Amino acid sequence: MKGFVLFAILALAAQMVVAAEEKEMAVPINKTKDGVAIEGHDPVAYFEEGKAMKGKAEFKSEWMGATWMFTTAVRKNLFDKSPTKYAPQYGGYCAFGMTKGTKMGVDAAVWRIFESKLYLCSSKDSMTMFEKDTKGNISKADENWQRVIKTISPQ
Protein backbone atom coordinates (compact mmCIF):
# COMPACT_ATOMS: atom_id res chain seq x y z
CA MET A 1 0.00 0.00 0.00
CA LYS A 2 2.80 2.41 0.87
CA GLY A 3 4.43 1.70 -2.52
CA PHE A 4 1.18 2.57 -4.33
CA VAL A 5 0.80 5.85 -2.42
CA LEU A 6 4.41 6.80 -3.20
CA PHE A 7 3.88 5.92 -6.86
CA ALA A 8 0.70 8.04 -6.99
CA ILE A 9 2.46 11.00 -5.39
CA LEU A 10 5.38 10.76 -7.86
CA ALA A 11 3.00 10.46 -10.81
CA LEU A 12 1.09 13.54 -9.67
CA ALA A 13 4.32 15.48 -9.20
CA ALA A 14 5.45 14.55 -12.71
CA GLN A 15 2.12 15.75 -14.14
CA MET A 16 2.51 19.06 -12.30
CA VAL A 17 6.01 19.55 -13.75
CA VAL A 18 4.75 18.85 -17.28
CA ALA A 19 1.84 21.27 -16.78
CA ALA A 20 4.20 23.98 -15.50
CA GLU A 21 6.53 23.49 -18.47
CA GLU A 22 3.62 23.67 -20.91
CA LYS A 23 2.36 26.87 -19.26
CA GLU A 24 5.85 28.37 -19.42
CA MET A 25 6.09 27.58 -23.13
CA ALA A 26 2.92 29.62 -23.74
CA VAL A 27 4.76 32.88 -23.00
CA PRO A 28 5.77 34.70 -26.19
CA ILE A 29 9.34 35.90 -26.53
CA ASN A 30 10.33 39.00 -28.48
CA LYS A 31 12.79 37.73 -31.07
CA THR A 32 14.24 38.52 -34.45
CA LYS A 33 12.92 36.91 -37.63
CA ASP A 34 15.77 34.41 -37.15
CA GLY A 35 14.41 33.49 -33.71
CA VAL A 36 17.09 35.23 -31.63
CA ALA A 37 16.03 36.80 -28.32
CA ILE A 38 17.06 40.31 -27.23
CA GLU A 39 18.84 41.07 -30.49
CA GLY A 40 21.51 38.49 -29.66
CA HIS A 41 22.56 40.14 -26.41
CA ASP A 42 23.70 38.05 -23.47
CA PRO A 43 21.04 38.28 -20.73
CA VAL A 44 23.48 37.23 -18.02
CA ALA A 45 25.94 40.01 -18.95
CA TYR A 46 23.45 42.68 -17.90
CA PHE A 47 23.67 41.28 -14.37
CA GLU A 48 27.37 40.40 -14.28
CA GLU A 49 28.95 43.17 -16.37
CA GLY A 50 26.38 45.91 -15.95
CA LYS A 51 26.17 46.46 -19.69
CA ALA A 52 24.60 45.12 -22.86
CA MET A 53 26.95 42.69 -24.61
CA LYS A 54 26.37 40.76 -27.83
CA GLY A 55 26.57 37.03 -27.38
CA LYS A 56 28.53 34.63 -29.60
CA ALA A 57 27.02 31.99 -31.88
CA GLU A 58 29.16 29.32 -30.23
CA PHE A 59 27.44 29.92 -26.87
CA LYS A 60 23.71 29.62 -27.40
CA SER A 61 20.71 27.97 -25.79
CA GLU A 62 17.16 27.30 -26.86
CA TRP A 63 14.51 28.35 -24.38
CA MET A 64 10.87 29.34 -24.78
CA GLY A 65 11.04 28.94 -28.55
CA ALA A 66 13.92 31.40 -28.95
CA THR A 67 17.69 31.25 -29.31
CA TRP A 68 19.55 33.00 -26.50
CA MET A 69 23.17 34.06 -27.07
CA PHE A 70 25.96 34.35 -24.49
CA THR A 71 29.46 35.77 -24.29
CA THR A 72 30.88 32.73 -22.47
CA ALA A 73 30.08 29.10 -21.76
CA VAL A 74 29.89 29.95 -18.05
CA ARG A 75 27.12 32.48 -18.67
CA LYS A 76 25.30 30.03 -20.92
CA ASN A 77 25.38 27.46 -18.11
CA LEU A 78 24.10 30.00 -15.57
CA PHE A 79 21.18 30.81 -17.84
CA ASP A 80 20.47 27.15 -18.57
CA LYS A 81 20.23 26.43 -14.83
CA SER A 82 17.90 29.36 -14.11
CA PRO A 83 16.59 31.11 -17.23
CA THR A 84 13.84 33.04 -15.47
CA LYS A 85 16.46 34.65 -13.21
CA TYR A 86 18.17 36.25 -16.23
CA ALA A 87 15.56 36.56 -18.97
CA PRO A 88 14.03 40.01 -19.42
CA GLN A 89 10.56 40.67 -18.10
CA TYR A 90 7.56 40.64 -20.45
CA GLY A 91 9.21 38.23 -22.84
CA GLY A 92 11.75 40.87 -23.78
CA TYR A 93 9.13 43.34 -25.00
CA CYS A 94 9.33 47.02 -24.00
CA ALA A 95 8.52 47.44 -20.30
CA PHE A 96 7.00 50.88 -20.79
CA GLY A 97 4.93 49.67 -23.75
CA MET A 98 3.58 46.91 -21.54
CA THR A 99 2.30 49.53 -19.06
CA LYS A 100 -0.06 50.47 -21.92
CA GLY A 101 -0.76 46.84 -22.79
CA THR A 102 1.24 47.17 -26.00
CA LYS A 103 3.72 44.64 -27.31
CA MET A 104 6.63 46.81 -28.54
CA GLY A 105 10.13 45.96 -29.71
CA VAL A 106 13.19 47.04 -27.76
CA ASP A 107 16.62 48.53 -28.07
CA ALA A 108 18.70 45.98 -26.15
CA ALA A 109 21.07 48.77 -25.10
CA VAL A 110 18.24 50.47 -23.14
CA TRP A 111 17.75 48.49 -19.95
CA ARG A 112 17.59 48.53 -16.17
CA ILE A 113 17.78 45.94 -13.45
CA PHE A 114 15.25 46.65 -10.73
CA GLU A 115 14.79 44.33 -7.76
CA SER A 116 16.88 41.65 -9.48
CA LYS A 117 14.81 41.67 -12.69
CA LEU A 118 15.83 42.83 -16.15
CA TYR A 119 13.63 45.37 -17.94
CA LEU A 120 14.19 46.44 -21.54
CA CYS A 121 12.69 49.46 -23.32
CA SER A 122 12.33 50.62 -26.90
CA SER A 123 14.14 53.94 -26.38
CA LYS A 124 15.75 56.15 -23.77
CA ASP A 125 12.55 58.21 -23.66
CA SER A 126 10.44 55.14 -22.90
CA MET A 127 12.88 54.13 -20.15
CA THR A 128 12.67 57.64 -18.68
CA MET A 129 8.88 57.36 -18.61
CA PHE A 130 9.08 53.87 -17.11
CA GLU A 131 11.42 55.08 -14.36
CA LYS A 132 9.19 58.01 -13.35
CA ASP A 133 7.19 55.49 -11.31
CA THR A 134 9.08 52.21 -11.58
CA LYS A 135 7.03 50.26 -9.01
CA GLY A 136 3.70 51.61 -10.26
CA ASN A 137 4.67 50.94 -13.87
CA ILE A 138 5.80 47.41 -13.06
CA SER A 139 2.45 46.79 -11.40
CA LYS A 140 0.59 48.04 -14.52
CA ALA A 141 2.89 46.13 -16.86
CA ASP A 142 2.56 42.90 -14.85
CA GLU A 143 -1.23 43.15 -15.01
CA ASN A 144 -1.22 43.93 -18.73
CA TRP A 145 1.30 41.16 -19.46
CA GLN A 146 -1.07 38.58 -17.99
CA ARG A 147 -3.77 39.83 -20.37
CA VAL A 148 -1.42 40.08 -23.37
CA ILE A 149 -0.03 36.55 -23.04
CA LYS A 150 -3.56 35.21 -23.24
CA THR A 151 -4.23 36.97 -26.55
CA ILE A 152 -1.08 36.15 -28.51
CA SER A 153 0.47 32.84 -29.36
CA PRO A 154 4.17 32.01 -29.12
CA GLN A 155 6.11 32.99 -32.22
Q: What does the model show?
A:
The chain folds into 2 domains: 29-85, no CATH class; 88-155, no CATH class. Strands 1-2 form a two-stranded antiparallel sheet. It has a two-stranded antiparallel ribbon with strand order 3-4. The protein is an alpha+beta fold and 155 residues long. Mean pLDDT is 87; it is low at 10-25. The protein has 7 helices and 4 strands, in the order H-H-E-E-H-H-H-E-E-H-H. The protein has helices at residues 2-25, 43-48, 73-81, 83-86, 95-99, 124-131, 134-151, and strands at 56-63, 66-70, 107-114, 117-121.
Principal-axis shape equals: globular
Summarize the helix and strand pattern as letters.
HHEEHHHEEHH
Gyration radius from CA atoms, angstroms? 17 Å
Ends distance: 47 Å
Distinct helical segment count = 7
Average pLDDT level? 87
The overall strand count is 4
Strand portion = 15-25%
Supply the helix-strand structural class.
alpha+beta
pLDDT < 50 stretches: 10-25
Question: What's the helix and strand layout?
Answer:
Elements: H1 2-25, H2 43-48, E1 56-63, E2 66-70, H3 73-81, H4 83-86, H5 95-99, E3 107-114, E4 117-121, H6 124-131, H7 134-151
Antiparallel strand pairs: 1-2, 3-4
